[in-house]
Amino acid sequence: MLTPDAIAHAIHRMAQEIIEANDSMESVALLGILSRGRPLAERLAREIHAMTGVLPKVGSLSTTLYRDDLRSSHASAKMGSGETHFDFDVDGITVILVDDVISKGRTTRAALDEVMDYGRPARVQLACLIDRGRRELPIQPDYLGWSIRTDPLDHVAVKLDECDGEDIVLLERALHDANE
């Protein structure tokens, strides 16, 4: 779906939109939802810094303990895949949650719950590299790199150099039974 150049272009455009939508980058912090949201947040921060001279604060959120599907027998949450870490106060600032893929909206809802446990931001925004549709909750990204409609069993694989040694976004289509 996306090549390294297309990913870089999407991040650059998202950074421009963040700058245009916020009065002051000094009062903006980016919280990357682990695991690939963190390197995306760092890339957005570098782009914003290159454009404005201000480097936004960056941190990480691990939403595992806030997921509403942990009690479900269908949950496949990976414990120990990272932990929440940021060294700034969220009270009164704009927090931008950053994630690689949004689908149902449940991870974003969990991230909102976690952020509110740490304080009360002036506002919370959402930046996602890929929107694959299939929303279950009324949550939409404020800043979006790419949108694609997918079937429920399709998989969007975001690979980032920091985590996977390469930048690429792949759409893995589910095989459908010929008898359907």
Topology, element by element:
Elements: H1 4-21, E1 28-33, H2 37-52, E2 57-61, E3 94-102, H3 106-118, E4 123-131, E5 143-147, E6 155-159, H4 161-164, E7 168-172
Parallel strand pairs: 1-2, 1-3, 3-4, 4-5
Antiparallel strand pairs: 6-7
Can you walk me through this structure?
This protein is α/β, with parallel strands linked by helices and 180 residues long. The chain has one domain: 3-Layer(aba) Sandwich (Rossmann fold). It contains 4 helices and 7 strands. The strands form 2 sheets. Strands 2-1-3-4-5 form a 5-stranded parallel sheet. Strands 6-7 form a two-stranded antiparallel ribbon. Helix 3 links the parallel strand 3 and strand 4. Helix 1 packs across helix 2. The longest helix has 18 residues. The chain is globular. The two termini are 27 Å apart. About 4% of the residues have low confidence.
| Largest sheet features | 5 strands, parallel
What is the ordering of alpha helices and beta strands? HEHEEHEEEHE
What is the CATH C-level name?
Alpha Beta
Number of beta-strand segments: 7
Can I get a quick summary?
The protein has 180 residues and is an alpha/beta fold.
Throw out a few tags for this protein.
alpha/beta, Rossmann fold, 4 helices, 24% strand
